[in-house]
């Protein structure tokens, strides 16, 4: 099987998954107890309004017809209009998505980079003091709720020192203000990512470092440092890399909360606000975008992995 | 640089000792117990010879080899003894100094070429590593030397193979890659720890032939570790028999195999009707291999020996030189 | 049979030793026990009613109000003490529900394989395409606020890792020789699962469940923080933090104590879960080879 076949088959595998995702999103909102037409009005529901909305959204239609109608809209990238603002959902989702990427990409990269020293230090001397300490630190990093880290940083950097804005997205793209307003939310996500990735990298480093080829490398006269850099780390990064896809989901979850803490106008904030406002079409759109994002990242990770690992890249050329 | 063309090391100084172990002791400190894997052995490897180290599984052969390379890592430690290489005690060297010896003056190849090659590094790069490290070769100079080396170890079509990854080669080819990288800097000694155990029988013979040929061309000494007396008979000039972390007998191959003096060597030979094919580990002598944690008192072999006397249980026999030059550690021979 | 029992016992003793010698894991246990006691004896420990106004608002910590008063004048200490109850009940409750959903599904998928397995695993994949908190938030908003609904929302979304681990266990045990012999003597599937697969899977399931409690506690706090969980005046550490967020400039302590409490609880379960994993996994216990 060559690379291209692999990519194609991997993409094809994703179709039923995406299909399942749309079903879950639809079903969760439409089947769970309560009539959406009433739920959306919250505590001040009136029978007239309920009847009107039922009619308008075709809620009297059978479920599968409603699903097909919604899905065909989604496929045409038509998510409908927001119940809250009555504006088309798609442009709102896109601009929020862009803001989320602005926050999420540096955060994820930062977390992974910070994980490397954590994982390597721990693995050089397993069960040593440094190792125990960095393991504990990683666990603490995972256990601190992200909204509390955010809050503490706001207390210290914004309220106490007054050096960074408390929340919101300031300035234009690439302006100093924008970067300043990015710092705290990015750091909040980086802490979680570094802790998570550091733990995974440690265990894959420990596994690799006990492999026989490490002995060969040392028998050549390479220093431990060089062995780690040129032999251990590249091998440990591979399994670590596959975990990144899983982590992405957790980091995105953290992003939802962080955006709420810092009032960062990303997809997470939009999701939260729409949930609070019972703006269900927007909620559906956000959920779909996030889930598709998780899927795409996983796809990308798998393909990159297959490319990075020569055993997969050159599969079928063995034992010549 | 010429990789071939031995510079005449072999002729004059065949008798010169190049590596000497003196009372080497290596222990592993595992949960509560001390494993004395190598328990005070003395050996001498001469310049230009193939020296065999034979013994049952667990007798301490690999630990001996790794001790010479100073690659014993925690929880293991060289606790006693000296490793004299060209007049220098390797045990005393700093890690930094030792690194300059590894892969350059002394190099090592291992049992299972698949596990001992980095799966995600091109084989050419893996061969080039010692050249870059010890000779400062890089780029095209390194590449052409690697190609030459690959040809030398009998890899057909080196140009095609240099950018392959290990999994694209067969087992025999992988072992040749390991050999090429070990010989890249023309070491004085090559330690080969069961280099053929993981290979097919037909390939085994090819690899052994290659080792012998290269040894002749390069003039290196080889410490060949095996549990296969057939391999010893075919390859080695001299041989040491190891048992329970001790050396039992050291002599020319013909005299050890032809007229063994130590009861253990004799039992080992008897247990093997045909010297040639024995892929399984030696475990045919009645009784068990002694525990390395609580070894029997006196001679390590006495519980399985048919000539045991009181003195064998009381006192550990030391390795003594007999009139014909061979060394034996047995009370009967003194 | 006796031999098997004895080796299992030895294993357990060994696991216990590993766990007990890990000071970090014991620290986690101390946290859990401490918070559990606080939760159980909340009515005795708390000096005031956590939902009642007791004094002026935003008072700093004092002898009277250990952690001060909140933005409307309730005793923060009492709210934290009662919050332990809410937090632990939510954590255990949600994880129990996840266990009840995930374990049978996973065992069935692993044991029967084939189509059933495929269906279950694809469902898991779909659930795992969403960040945990996102689905929980969605469910909580539909179900409405309150402890029961928080447990439901977190339980229904958090079962996937349990399902996966149970499946792997069932898969690995399914091929074992003694299961084959049980089949041969005509034991029913349910019996094989209950008598053989389940006991063998207990260790890894315990680990996953312990870590799951930690993430459910975080989940409850996050939902409450986002206003979709426990609603004031009921005390919840998460909602206390979201109130503190509005009074950042007025009071520092308001944002500190609930956070410490959440961290203690989550860290406690994470530490114990981590320690248990090390203790129960013989592969990790083995020393590195030279
Ligand atoms: N890392 C280690 N920790 C503890 N004990 C060890 C370690 N490495 C080796 N040993 C012990 O040292 C003894 C000698 O092992 P060694 O690997 O040298 O045997 P060997 O002669 O090479 O056997 P084989 O033919 O199986 O390769 C054995 O009893 C082994 O258990
Ligand atoms: Mg060995």
Description:
With 320 residues, chain A is mainly alpha-helical. Chain A is 77% helix and 0% strand. Chain B is of the alpha/beta class. Chain B has twelve helices and twelve strands. An eight-stranded mixed β-sheet of chain B has the order 6-7-8-3-9-10-12-11, with helices on both faces. The radius of gyration of chain B is 20 Å and the shape is globular. Chain C contains 13 helices and no strands. In chain C, helix 10 runs antiparallel to helix 12. The C terminus of chain C is likely disordered. Chains in contact: A-B, A-C, B-C. At the A-C interface, helix 1, helix 6, helix 7, helix 10 and helix 11 of A face helix 5, helix 6, helix 10, helix 11 and helix 12 of C. Adenosine-5'-triphosphate binds next to strand 1, strand 2 and helix 2 of chain B.
Q: Give the strand tally of chain C.
A: 0
- What general form of chain C does the structure show? elongated
Order of helices and strands of chain C: HHHHHHHHHHHHH
User: Which band does the percent of strand residues of chain C land in?
Assistant: under 5%
Summarize the model shown:
Chain B has 334 residues and is α/β, with parallel strands linked by helices. Chain B has helices at residues 9-12, 61-68, 95-101, 123-135, 139-152, 158-161, 171-183, 201-218, 229-235, 253-258, 263-270, 310-314; strands at residues 17-30, 33-46, 50-55, 76-85, 88-89, 106-109, 189-193, 221-226, 238-243, 246-252, 320-321, 327-328. In chain B, strand 1 (17-30) and strand 2 form a beta hairpin.
Question: How are the SSEs placed, and which strands pair?
Answer:
The complex is a heterotrimer of chains A (320), B (334) and C (290).
Chain A: H1 3-31, H2 36-39, H3 47-56, H4 63-75, H5 89-124, H6 129-143, H7 146-160, H8 176-209, H9 212-219, H10 224-261, H11 267-277, H12 280-308, H13 310-313
Chain B: H1 9-12, E1 17-30, E2 33-46, E3 50-55, H2 61-68, E4 76-85, E5 88-89, H3 95-101, E6 106-109, H4 123-135, H5 139-152, H6 158-161, H7 171-183, E7 189-193, H8 201-218, E8 221-226, H9 229-235, E9 238-243, E10 246-252, H10 253-258, H11 263-270, H12 310-314, E11 320-321, E12 327-328
Parallel strand pairs in B: 3-8, 3-9, 6-7, 7-8
Antiparallel strand pairs in B: 1-2, 1-4, 4-5, 9-10, 10-12, 11-12
Chain C: H1 2-21, H2 23-40, H3 42-45, H4 76-112, H5 114-127, H6 132-143, H7 147-157, H8 160-174, H9 177-184, H10 189-225, H11 237-246, H12 257-280, H13 282-285
